[in-house]
């Protein structure tokens, strides 16, 4: 089954008990147990719920995995996975990792004697040098946020295997439709379903998929014990959003490709960052491991005043934190996703005062281009 068919038929989409064309919201915290001395599939919603289980099967199907997990946010998924580490362990993390992950690794994990090294993943030698005898996880995120830097997944997996280190990958930007980390050898894949999987900017959710049975047991225990489970209503909304994910993503990525090309040729734009452009420094690596440039791009207007002028005049995109909605979303990384870094650290990463990130929605590209063009004319 190919992915678009899978989105409609590849996991429990129809209710097995009633035939309802949409899995109902099993809005219950607990389940009546008729035979008190026998275990039954569902007993308490924190341990499992049929609506949430359908979504967990859905992410497993899309990622080509044996096991799926749903969490209350992308960060709940990331933090619960990283809590598989034990005191004394070390992990290697990309310098440009998502801000929330950076904060969790830097500010929370040391409380449990778990240490980390932040490394530039474009330099594999640096990554290898950072691996110590205590390293248990090599954390991957590609393309990065907001500069869309690309890391070579296969080479990183090879490196991790050489040192018997687990690979954990955040695949939020590409989604399981366009990048299949498990097929490339990654051990655990994480998605913030808040973004493209749900796709309607109305839910916060996180998903995880993996193949190893031992890891499944351990993560299931952590999921149950930390309790950061996804609520039934939100699981249902993500299930609903996923059904149209294929056509939504196709349109959003088409828009991104068109807009990136337009901006790359515009005299008022200093730099465009988009892995779907042949001018992207890692275009070939990205093309090897992903089947689309994705729906997110960033561009540099040179300074803060130009950012203020452009965002003031843009009429279609909302100006907001987040990405992956049906509506186009413009973010200012300097004061939004990367606000917790110092200006020095931001500049080192390339998060300049002139940088804007655009997550393309499914509007008509002609209208988006017209809007961008008129906003740029005020600069
Ligand atoms: C790449 C990436 N990973 C993880 C997250 C965290 O997801 P959530 O906001 O659902 O906790 C985000 C949120 O923006 C993100 O962009």
From TrEMBL:
Family to which this protein belongs: Belongs to the trans-sulfuration enzymes family.
EC top class named in words: lyase
Names of required cofactors: pyridoxal 5'-phosphate
Enzyme Commission designation: 4.4.1.13
MF annotations from Gene Ontology: transferase activity
Protein name: cysteine-S-conjugate beta-lyase
PANTHER family in the record: CYSTATHIONINE BETA-LYASE, TRANS-SULFURATION ENZYME FAMILY MEMBER
Matches recorded under InterPro entries: Cys/Met-Metab_PyrdxlP-dep_enz, Cys_met_metab_PP, PyrdxlP-dep_Trfase, PyrdxlP-dep_Trfase_major, PyrdxlP-dep_Trfase_small
Superkingdom per UniProt: Bacteria
SUPFAM superfamilies, per database record: PLP-dependent transferases (SSF53383)
Keywords: Amino-acid biosynthesis, Lyase, Methionine biosynthesis, Pyridoxal phosphate, Transferase
Keyword DNA damage included in the entry's annotation: no
A Pfam family per the record: Cys_Met_Meta_PP
């Amino acid at each position: 089954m190919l992915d678009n068919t899978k989105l409609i038929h590849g996991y429990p989409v129809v209710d097995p008990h009633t035939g309802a064309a949409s899995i109902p919201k099993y809005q219950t915290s607990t389940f009546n147990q008729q035979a008190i001395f026998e275990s039954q599939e569902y007993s308490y919603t924190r341990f499992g719920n049929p609506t949430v289980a359908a979504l967990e099967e859905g992410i497993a199907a899309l990622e080509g995995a044996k096991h799926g997990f749903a969490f209350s946010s992308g960060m709940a998924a990331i933090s619960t996975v990283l809590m598989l580490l034990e005191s004394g362990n070390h992990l290697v993390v990309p310098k440009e990792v998502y801000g929330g992950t950076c904060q969790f690794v830097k500010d929370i994990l040391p409380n449990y004697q778990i240490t980390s090294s932040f490394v530039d993943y474009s330099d594999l030698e640096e990554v290898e040098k950072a691996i110590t005898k205590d390293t248990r996880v090599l954390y991957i995120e590609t393309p990065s946020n907001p500069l869309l830097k690309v890391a070579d997944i296969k080479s990183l997996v090879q490196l991790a295997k050489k040192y018997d280190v687990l690979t954990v990958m955040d695949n939020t930007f590409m989604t399981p439709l366009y990048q299949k980390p498990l097929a490339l050898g990654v051990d655990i894949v994480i998605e913030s379903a808040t973004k493209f999987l749900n796709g309607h900017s109305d839910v916060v959710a996180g998903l995880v998929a993996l193949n190893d049975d031992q890891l499944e047991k351990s993560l299931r225990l952590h999921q149950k014990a930390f309790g950061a489970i996804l609520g039934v209503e939100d699981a249902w909304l993500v299930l609903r959003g996923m059904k149209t994910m294929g056509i939504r993503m196709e349109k959003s990525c088409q828009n991104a490709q068109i807009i990136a090309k337009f901006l790359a040729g515009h005299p008022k734009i200093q730099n465009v960052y988009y892995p779907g452009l042949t001018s992207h420094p890692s275009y070939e690596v990205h093309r090897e491991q992903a089947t689309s440039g994705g729906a997110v791009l960033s561009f540099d207007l040179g300074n803060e005043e130009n950012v203020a002028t452009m965002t003031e005049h843009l009429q279609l995109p909302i100006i907001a934190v987040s990405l992956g909605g049906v509506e186009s979303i413009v973010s200012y990384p300097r004061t939004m996703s990367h606000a917790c870094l110092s200006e020095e650290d931001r500049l080192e990463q390339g998060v300049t005062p002139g940088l804007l990130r655009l997550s393309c929605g499914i509007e008509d590209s002609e209208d988006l281009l017209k809007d961008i063009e008129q906003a740029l004319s005020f600069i």
